[in-house]
Design a protein that fits this description.
- The chain is an alpha/beta fold.
- It is 35% helix and 23% strand.
- It has a six-stranded mixed beta sheet with strand order 6-7-8-3-9-10. A four-stranded antiparallel beta sheet has the order 2-1-4-5.
- A hairpin with a 7-residue loop joins β1 and β2.
Length: 226
């Protein structure tokens, strides 16, 4: 299974955008401070719009041609979870399960399971807007990591995440990394020290690949200085 980015664009007098990579099953961390470049990658990867120059391909097919057949394969967890504040936690789980193409019965079973796995079964009837932000974040990550989608996109997954939820996230990532393409956008230097990861640095429109060395901290500051 492959997800391919191929976007090289240099409209004078603007700087060069050079984003070329092929992702397969496993965890890939995309590090860096290039917010504009990261937004561009989100648009490409979630198929919000096709790139003006270049291609994004999934399983060998142009995602612009695949349309909804591609977006059905993505599960996305944003940096700041946003839900209508009046819906209950259980309604949110049912709704998001149905959008993942589950039947009504499957969505109900999955929602009950996620309530127990998250440790919030007593909060099922509580409106989302009344939940602590850490609980909302935890639920959103669980819903994404437990989806059937083969491509998982996590944007700054450590924001508002308590230690227990972090441990559960690492466990789920370890369970799924051999069968899913997992892209993690983060500014943390080495977010998963105990898990095998590939690394890319996004800086000034350029995507650079590198490997973790046998040290506690990768040369992140050196990469950004290049």
């Amino acid at each position: 299974m492959e997800l391919e980015w191929n976007h090289v664009y240099h409209p004078a007098p603007f700087p060069l955008t050079d984003i070329q990579a092929v992702f397969t099953e496993g965890i890939t961390c995309i590090l860096g401070d290039d917010l504009e470049g990261k937004q561009l990658l989100f648009q490409f990867t979630t198929a919000v719009r096709a790139p003006m120059q270049g291609q994004v391909r999934f399983l060998g097919y142009d995602t612009a041609m695949l349309g909804n057949a591609y977006t059905d394969h993505i599960s996305y967890a944003g940096q700041y979870p946003f839900y209508p504040p009046e819906i209950t936690l259980y309604q949110y789980l049912i709704h998001t399960s149905l959008t993942q193409r589950l039947s009504a019965r499957e969505a109900t079973c999955k929602s009950e399971e996620l309530l127990w796995e998250s440790g919030y079964p007593e909060l099922r009837s509580v409106p989302i807007g009344e939940l602590p932000l850490s609980a909302r974040r935890h639920i959103q990550l669980l819903q994404t990591l437990c989806s059937e989608a083969p491509v998982l996109i996590l944007n700054e997954p450590f924001t508002n995440l308590d230690p227990g939820a972090r441990k559960q996230m690492d466990t789920l990532l370890a369970d799924h990394m051999d069968e899913k393409i997992i892209l993690v956008f983060t500014q943390k230097e080495d977010p998963f020290p105990d898990l095998p990861c590939q690394f890319h640095t996004l800086h000034k429109g350029r995507l650079t690949s590198w490997r973790r060395k046998n040290t506690a901290q990768p040369p992140y500051h050196l990469l950004l200085a290049q």
